[in-house]
Specification:
The protein is of the alpha/beta class. Helix content is about 35%, strand content about 20%. It has an 8-stranded mixed sheet with strand order 1-2-4-3-7-11-8-9, sandwiched between helices. The radius of gyration is 20 Å and the shape is globular.
């Protein structure tokens, strides 16, 4: 017997720390579930699912935090405290270090904010010493006004969850460390705030990424791909992974395509895509694959730089993926997950109430278990 089940624990997560006058009748009354007749091996299965549940709780907390509380530096502090003692190795880059590395794309997004950008890496070596087989890279825009290409005021408060990709990455890394996953994995998140002050990046600016490729910034609200460009380049140079999965609340076009039922999947490797689709079905974090092609790639060619950061009115999610693909090294297996419609929900689900869903943690954990530990 066990005192609770993982779906119930995941569904019961709440973030009430800012509610000072919560009535007793509004508080949860169910505190314990007993499962009778549990089969052999339940302790091992329970420990695994409990690790995933704790990882989801970290992701949800980060996604739910208000933007005056959660910004790049405090994101790093919260994650550091949450994973202390779990055996993860943490690396943090400040803006001076990023400038020295030439991360002009990421820093261009950050330059309008008083909050300094950060890059955070969490390394887990569960299979022994050596380069990681797999890297997760997350977009961590802790608040997105759109910058100079400012968003409409209505609904802008939702942009506190524009760091949902980064949240999923750190939650998954916590889960892997808690259950002592027998795989070498690194999670990297690029953390910025996109604001429209007098020093902000302008539409028409050209920035130079860490890869050396130049980008014409036509829309400062297409900022997540700029963050991922430098985060992916640094991940490849620093950790040399064989495969990369990036996660980002990247495009509104993805919500138009899939609503809030599936995340979008793009990949340069069919076997990797199939494994992620299978992990999505098995975990409940569903994915749907989209195409990549040269015709879409041409849509982001710029007349004055190597590329522009938007591709036009059509195929917005695809051209965003084509943009990111240009920063993936030859021979690296890569998948991009556009999870714009999945990290926050206006209605309850089987594993979440209204609000932060924790999407991505179950998916990434299952992918590691099936593909790298099986």
């Amino acid at each position: 017997m066990r005192a609770c089940s993982s779906p119930a624990a995941q569904r019961a997560w709440r973030h009430d720390i800012y509610r000072t006058k919560l009535a007793d009748k509004a508080k949860p009354t169910l505190t314990r579930i007993v499962v009778a007749g549990a089969p052999d091996g339940i302790d091992t299965a329970w420990a695994h699912q409990d690790a995933v549940t704790q990882g989801m709780a970290l992701t949800r907390t980060l996604v739910a935090e208000p933007p005056n509380i959660l910004y790049p530096e405090s994101f790093v502090a919260q994650v550091t405290a949450s994973v202390e003692g779990l055996g993860l190795t943490l690396t943090v880059l400040d803006e001076a270090a990023m400038a020295e590395l030439g991360m002009g794309a990421l820093l261009g997004v950050s330059q309008g904010s008083r909050r300094e950008a950060r890059v955070l890496a969490l390394s887990w070596n569960g299979a022994g010493e050596g380069d990681p087989e797999l890297a997760f890279v997350g977009k961590g825009v802790t608040f997105d006004t759109g910058g100079i290409s400012i968003k409409p005021a209505a609904g802008m408060e939702d942009m506190k969850w524009d760091m949902g990709g980064a949240g999923a990455v750190v939650g998954a890394m916590k889960a892997l460390a808690l259950r002592k996953a027998k795989a070498n994995v690194v999670g990297v998140v690029g953390l910025v705030e996109n604001m429209p002050d007098g020093n902000a990046q302008r539409p028409g600016d050209v920035v130079t990424s860490m890869s050396g490729q130049t980008i014409e910034v036509l829309n400062t609200d297409a900022e997540g791909r700029l963050v991922l460009a430098d985060a992916i380049t640094w991940t490849q140079k620093m950790f040399k992974p064989k495969a990369i999965v990036d996660l980002a609340t990247l495009t509104g076009a993805m919500i138009v395509s899939l609503g809030h039922e599936h995340g979008g999947l793009f990949s340069n490797d069919d076997a990797m895509a199939d494994a992620l689709l299978a992990a999505g079905k098995a975990s409940g974090d569903l994915l749907w694959r989209f195409p990549l092609a040269d015709a879409y790639d041409k849509m982001i060619d710029s007349p004055i730089a190597d590329m522009k950061n938007i591709g036009g009115k059509g195929a917005g999610s695809i051209t965003a993926a084509q943009f990111i693909k240009r920063f993936v090294d030859e021979g690296v297996h890569w998948a991009h997950l556009d999870i714009a419609g999945m990290v926050w929900s206006d209605k309850p689900g089987s594993h979440h109430d209204k609000g932060a869903t924790g999407y991505g943690v179950r998916l990434l954990d299952r992918y590691v278990a099936d593909r790298f530990e099986g």
